[in-house]
Amino acid sequence: MVEEDKKFETVNAKLDAILQSSYDGIYITDGNGLFLNVNSGVERITGVKREFLLGAYAQDLVEKGVIDRSVVKLAIESKERITINQNVKAEKLKEVMVTATPILNEEGEVNYVVANLRDMTDLIHLENECCKAKLLSKQYYSQLLMEKNFKEKIIAESEVTKQLMQLAYRIAQVDSSVLLEGESGTGKEVFTRFIHEISSRRDGPFICINCAGIPENLLEAELFGYEEGSFTGAKKGGKAGLLELADGGTLFLDEINSLPMNLQGKLLRVIETLEVTRIGAVKSHKVNFRLITATNENLQELINNRLFRQDLYFRLRIVPLYIPPLRKRKKDIIPLIVHYLKYFNKKYNHKKEISINALKYLEAYEWPGNVRELKNVIERLVVISVNDLITEKDLPHEFITSIKSDDKFHIIIKEIVPLKELIEEVETQLIDLAMEKCGSTREAARALNISQTSVVRKFKEVESKLKREPNLVQKNL
User: Fold this and answer.
1) Whole-angstrom distance, CA of residue 328 vs CA of residue 77
2) Exposed / middle / buried, residue 269 (Cβ in 10 Å: 0-12, 13-18, 19+)
């Protein structure tokens, strides 16, 4: 008997050693949920002391708030292996995955429950890190796409255009409807393509339609499609509309202000239901597209005049994006000129250049047609200019008169001269003009904001120069 007890103790010691050697947490309870043995892994994973568990019941831990639910109880009740995620609150809150296996006797009753624990905190942390890495990777990829498209498709030197690009990048990350506002020719379609190409829909279709460019009687069929026989001239088999063709991609409706009132209601329904019904059809088609619209008119004024639906306006203008005219972003003008000059030189196999003076006139121009007008003007200059150097003489008349009449001075330097000579020449012209207009040294001094003594001295120097070199002063320097 003593010998058998020794053998039992030896086996028990070996089993305990095996239990303690496991990195995972393992504990054993009896058929009532009383903890019989707990290895050190349980203490390490949960933070609950082994001494606290031994002699306690699993359900007691639930009542004391140590665990949120007991897997042991579930295993005893079901008599089947159970796996759950369990929250353990000891030194800090932890989430563990517990698998409890009931051991049944010959009568089918639960004698023991063996439970295995694994710490989910590290796994969850790793999963979160993986999600963050994926998100950063996606953002980095989108950023690369943005920079690539930024350099290739949009010229942005002015601060306002750079800010627009950053805003467009953020807009591209979501599917909200965007309304682009601004004058004709500012590049609204270019911005729309940019948003599409750096969005998650970049592999989907990009459908663009100008609402003002299609007759009203054809616009409905183009947008919504039609069934066979729905009207005279309808194609056999019917036709899918542009709203259907945009599924999975981006739909751009330019000059949305020209959309007839009867179609505005139909478009609003598509936006709200994400379903399109063809003309003559009874069954609708599900669609999923990103909607971007543009207007060159003030939609609020159209709403006030009952020419545009206010409810549609609110659905379209979730994210407004105003594209300012070219005259408001002057720093973009010369880079745009250089860009299109290079483009048309390549297209027509020319090697044209533009003089500094010509650039000055082009930059001073108001550009009522914006980027579209600039592009057309540069193409015209490349095609019709006789010499390889495009000068101010090649520019249309409106550009020569583009310098505002209220400008106080306009100096065009035709050749490089020493700075001192240039300053002396300008001073000579200014003193001579002041004396001519003011009539006295006192009034001239007041106009020039210098002392009368300085005017007298400088005017004598001017008279002396004029006697020596009568043709020195050129009023059109």
Assistant:
1) 76
2) middle
2-119: CATH architecture: 2-Layer Sandwich (3.30)
pLDDT higher than threshold 50 for residue 422: yes
Closest CA to 455 of 467, 444, 466: 444
pTM above 0.70, yes or no: no
d(CA 169, CA 194): 8
> CB neighbours (10 Å) of residue 373?
16
Per-position DSSP letters for 423-464, written without gaps between them? HHHHHHHHHHHHHHHH-SHHHHHHHHTS-HHHHHHHHHHHHH
Which residues partner with 100 through β-bridges? 82, 115
Structure tokens at 282: 């009874």
Burial class (CB in 10 A: 0-12, 13-18, 19+), 436: exposed
As given in the structure block, the two tokens for residue 144 are: 């690369």
pLDDT digits (tens, 9 = 90+) for 243-255: 999 999 999 999 9
Residue extents of the structural domains in the chain: 2-119, 154-324, 327-400, 419-468
Identify the pLDDT of residue 10: 62
User: Architecture of domain 327-400 in CATH?
Assistant: Orthogonal Bundle (1.10)
Phi, psi of 182 (to 5 degrees): 155, 170
